[in-house]
Each structure stands twice: as structure tokens, then as C-alpha cells.
Design goal:
CATH architecture: Alpha-Beta Barrel
Helix content: 25-40%
Largest sheet: 9 strands, parallel
Shape: globular
CATH superfamily: Metal-dependent hydrolases
CATH topology: TIM Barrel
Pfam families: Peptidase_M19
GO molecular function, one term: metallodipeptidase activity
Structural class: alpha/beta
Strand content: 5-15%
Number of strands: 9
InterPro entries: Metal_Hydrolase, Pept_M19
Protein name: Diguanylate cyclase
Number of helices: 10
Radius of gyration: 18 Å
Distance between the termini: 22 Å
Number of domains: 1
CATH class: Alpha Beta
Order of helices and strands: EHHEHEEHEHEHEHEHEHH
Organism: Planococcus halocryophilus
């Protein structure tokens, strides 16, 4: 079965390895490096048809270096993921997904946190031109656009953040709420035409600030937004680094109970997590999730979770 995965951090791993190579480290090979949960061979083995690749900049980096870090990751997207793998095809607009050949995998470029462009909308427009199709305004920290879930102030969007959402709407780009403060989330709900939670679970089942509460979940479904379940055990079972596939399915059950059977997808966070769901350690093991889902849901519903819901909710469709 085809899989659409709306979040991974392979670009960050590739960048850090390249920087470390300057000090006698080793470069990672996207084709087959075992250090990458989402290397090409594993994507193929797991049936992944579309993989989102996030640009993520550590908040500790100085502000005047963050744009350079973003450009380095984008360069690796073009050179290592696309350039060295002819079967990886850049999804530059949402209709490109429909033209993928049977043996091709679509690659979508995303941004996790607006820190990369600061308050420079010219840089944001450049990101659109380079193919970024989903933008999360924050990671866990606050920035010039909004507060993240890790900031106790819990402020909403700034005027700049609201302008970014409007530009996302204009360019048919997702606005990702997965790391936003609660007040920021509600500001996005008022403004965004294309909201997505690229990697979040249900807070009612696991009381973690990275998860969405029931009110937020219902609002996402009312806005025709996608919520993509994340594989990080901390967001599945509270205060635990262990989780099973049935534990993850409990979150899918909860979303369905709130009316979201047609709004659920997958956002693994592979290459960005330090512990794993049992039997779901990298992209090659997606069939284990599909097999377990088929015990609980109809084939049509499982296809929806895997890829079809996304096709129906992508911007402009």
C-alpha cells in the first residue's frame, strides 16, 4: 500500500554529517546509509510514495547563521536526495503527485520554524520559489512570527506571523500547526485556508504539549485540515520512551471518534526521534503499521490513513 509521510528530519542529519565531515566524520549516503531512517532503500521497501523533508534549524544557532543553515539543507535536498536518485522526484506543486510513475517517489520540501527567514519576506518568497510547500511558523521556541509550545508566554501570532499565513494561502502552501502555542493555533484557525498538523497526536490520550486537545482536533476537522499521527513514543504514551503499534492506533481511534476518519494521515518524524515504536523503527517497516490497521479498519479507511485522505485535502484540490 502507498504511504504518504508528512514529516521527517533526514535533511538535518545529512547536514550535520556533512559539517562533521570537515572534522574527519563521514558523509551519509541517502541511498542506503543505515543512520537514516528514511534512506531511499527504506522508503522503497516501506512502500512510501511521497515523503516530506523538513528544513529544521536549531534555535541555539545565532540568528545571522540560520538562513545559511536553511540553504545548506535545501542544497542537500537538491544534490543528495534528488540529484543522486533519479527515482526521487521533486513535488513542486500539488498536482505533480498525480504524475508520479509507479517506481518513483515524490519528495516534498517543508520548513519547520520561521526562524530561517526571520522577518525577511523576500527570503520567504525565495523559499516558495525553491519548492517549499508547507511551513510551520515555529518549532517549540518563540520567534518573530509566533510562540511555540515550549514558550510559557503562550502568545499567538504576531502581525508578521499573520502575514506569513496569508502568503501561504496565496501560494497554496500548508500552514503547519504541530509546534504552535495554543493561542497561535487559534490564530491560524482564523486565517489559514490550508492548515495541517504534520506530526501530532491526541492530548486526551497523552498529555504532552506537542499534542492537540479535543477542541483543537475538532477545529482542524471543521477546517478540512489533516492531522498526521507521529511515531515519537513520548507523544503516544506519557512519560515513556516505549510504545507499540496498537498504542499509536489508539490515537487514530480517538481522532476517528471525533469525526476525523477522512482527515487522518501519517507524519512519522523519522530521523527526528531518538526512540521508536516497537516494529516501526524506520521507513521500511511501514507495512507493519498497515497490517495492524487492517485488523481494525476497512481497506478503504486504511487507504485513507495511508495516502488517500491527503490526496483529497491537499491545497487547491
Amino acid at each position: 500500500m502507498k504511504i504518504f509521510d508528512t514529516h521527517c528530519d533526514a535533511l538535518l542529519k545529512l547536514q550535520m554529517a556533512k559539517r562533521n565531515a570537515l572534522f574527519h566524520g563521514e558523509l551519509l549516503n541517502f541511498q542506503q546509509s543505515k543512520e537514516l531512517d528514511t534512506n531511499f532503500e527504506r522508503l522503497q521497501a516501506g512502500g512510501v510514495k511521497v515523503q516530506f523533508f523538513a528544513i529544521f534549524i536549531h534555535p541555539e544557532f545565532p540568528s545571522d547563521e540560520k538562513w545559511q543553515h536553511a540553504l545548506e539543507q535545501i542544497d542537500l535536498f537538491y544534490s543528495e536526495i534528488l540529484g543522486n536518485n533519479p527515482l526521487m522526484k521533486h513535488i513542486k506543486n500539488w498536482k505533480d503527485i498525480d504524475s508520479l510513475k509507479p517506481d518513483e517517489i515524490g519528495a516534498v520540501l517543508t520548513l519547520e520554524g520561521a526562524d530561517a527567514f526571520g522577518n525577511d519576506l523576500m527570503k520567504l518568497r525565495q523559499l516558495y520559489r525553491l519548492g517549499v510547500l508547507s511551513i510551520g511558523l515555529t518549532w517549540n521556541n518563540a520567534n518573530l512570527c509566533a510562540d511555540g509550545v515550549g514558550d510559557p508566554r503562550d502568545a499567538g501570532l504576531t502581525l508578521l506571523g499573520k502575514e506569513v499565513v496569508r502568503l501561504n494561502n496565496e501560494h497554496h502552501v500548508f500552514t503547519d500547526v504541530s509546534h504552535l502555542s495554543i493561542n497561535g493555533f487559534w490564530d491560524v484557525m482564523e486565517l489559514a485556508k490550508f492548515p495541517i498538523a504534520s506530526h501530532s497526536n491526541a492530548r486526551a490520550l497523552c498529555d504532552h504539549p506537542r499534542n492537540l486537545n479535543d477542541q483543537q482536533i475538532k477545529a482542524m476537522f471543521e477546517k478540512s485540515g489533516m492531522i498526521d499521527v507521529v511515531f515519537c513514543p513520548d507523544f503516544i504514551n506519557k512519560d515513556s520512551e516505549q510504545a507499540t503499534i496498537p498504542d499509536l492506533i489508539r490515537h487514530i481511534d480517538h481522532f476517528c471518534a471525533l469525526g476525523g476518519v477522512n482527515n487522518i494521515g501519517i507524519g512519522s518524524d523519522f530521523d527526528g526521534i531518538s526512540s521508536y515504536i516497537t516494529d516501526l523503527n524506520n521507513a521500511s517497516e511501514f507495512p507493519n503499521l498497515i497490517n495492524e490497521l487492517q485488523k481494525h479498519y476497512s481497506e478503504a479507511e486504511v487507504e485513507g490513513f495511508a495516502y488517500r485522505n491527503f490526496l483529497e485535502h491537499r491545497p487547491g484540490m
